[in-house]
Amino acid sequence: MTDTQTLDTQAVTAYLSRHLPGFQGPVEAVKFDVGQSNPTFLLKTPARNYVLRRKPPGVLLKSAHAVDREYRVQKALAGTKVPVAEMYLLCEDDSVIGSAFYVMSHVEGRNIRQPSMQGFSNATRHAVIDEMNRVLAELHMVDVEAVGLGDYGPEGNYYERQIARWTKQYRASETEPVAAMDRLIAELPKRMPPEDGQRTLVHGDYRIDNMIFEHDGSACLAVLDWELSTTGHPYADLASVIMQWQMPEGREGRGLAGVDRAALGLMSDEEFINRYCERRGLSGIDNFGFYLAFCFFRMGGIIQGVLKRALDGNASNPERALQIGRYVPMFAESGLEALDR
């Protein structure tokens, strides 16, 4: 079994001492318990804290776990209206700790795991969700050419290539037949909307628990986990938020299904979409069910990969991976329902 839970702090200390200005050991590494893809560690030193994010060691799916892309996009976004951690260093030499990694600033703030935000005031809940909406709109208004990301993703139909990519990834990590997923894979290309000319930066996994907020306020301090980012179509990110909210509330689903949103000061799906459209100057969005179905499909492919890594012994959090892996059929069924709405 490949070890993803520990870090060779001696090797990290030696490397950072040579390559990171101002760095001084000793280092204590503490693994974050969130995230299923790229193991992430808090590096504690006497002077300050850092965060190290690495590829998992072992045999990986081609094009997955691209920490170099994560580093590049966050470095490019520095100075824009999209808040990101400060990037310090990228190491692509696998011989240092066994896989590529990068080091960034440790952003002190509040990581909100549940969108229901139990214990928050209604005003704070509304402000946090509105800030989430604002940052998403700002992300999709970044001039990709101006920040040096014009070549960050291929040209052409974003959904066409994403469906092809995630179908391939899903098949490569398939552990048992899922009839609903097979149907969804067959139906999505048939329902694809025509191109509308939008090509923006896309996060790929935009949700509240991939953000850091102020401890005592609603301002977003950093958007995290850029592994799936590319240039593509913005409605995939918007639909990703709505998809997450349709999940059950709690640790497993981290959604808002069954929650009385109005009573908690939370936006409805329609309010969130309308606010986003206002910020981007859009009149509305047609055929939103396709974008929602696409997000259910992609998330099903992602968690199938998580399950496969758990069974292969190189998941970042094996126990959690096995738990969420059983939800692949549910995501597929939800995707089919979204298509038919």
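The record above closes out task 2.4. Task 2.5 opens with a second protein, given below.
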Amino acid sequence: MHSYEPAELEAYLAAHVPGFGGLDGIEKFSDGQSNPTYRVTSGGRHFVLRAKPPGTLLKSAHAVDREFRVMQALSPTPVPVPKVYHLSGEETPLGTQFMVMQMVEGRIFWDPALPVLDTAARTRVYDAMNATLAALHDVDPSSVGLEDYGKPGNYFARQLARWSGQYTQTATDGLPDADWLMRWLDDHMVADDGAASIVHGDFRIDNMIFAPDREAVVALLDWELSTLGHPLADLAYQCMHWRLPHAGHFRGLGGVDRAALGLPDEDAYVAAYCARRGLPRPGQWTFYVAFSYFRLLAILQGVLKRGLDGNASNPKDTDRLREVIALMARDARQLAETG
């Protein structure tokens, strides 16, 4: 949680955010581990303020400036993003950099099994997510000024180096399965096939707002991990989430009868995405999903380290988080070993 002087923050926002009057209220959203996010009320208007957390941060982490840039660039495209109003510098009334954007009204579904919807509506939600992902990957980065938003070369090799480094920096316990997975991914690295697009980096159902009255995505949120990269990274990452258990602290679809609920199975979802983009079905799918496991467990390891250091946006029980990371490493190793 940030500390601030209300009068100073009010004056800053009034000077930099169009249509902002007095600071009538500020409330932190309870969910989210990375960048603290607040609902800011000014008269009859609501804004969202998203800030870097306080404390010492890893290099390149918590990049609200990248979030601001990509959403601003995507605003004229078919990809649904909130309007962005202001990006601050590093010196602010909150003590960290932040951005201010539109408050989009709608529904957020925290459970991917969608128990609050009927069968037909569940099918439409998943089709809307699929269409949103395909629309994002169809955007030509150079057409929206994002041709320099990532580095050239093999995306997965670059990402593995990044997340291996961050995992190593934040490791708090010995985890042989994670160490084995790092080596396996390096040994089975996919070749660079030249495919490149804007990738979201955290594409999952609870990072989307759906319209209040229909199953359509009206805002894709949380662009902190976005970059130029391989589109299969986003697709595999979402599918990886659905392999996780539908129990405890996981929000997966493991063990769920998808057909009975009107949800597509993984093969059907991948096929629909490929059909939308005119692509063949991907080979080496095990690598892409195993990489997604490692990337997420490395991110969670960073959350654990920040929690132990007292800098997490929404601290969790560290023992539970340790258990989650260990389970993910075990399951990813099993996937890699069995294919």
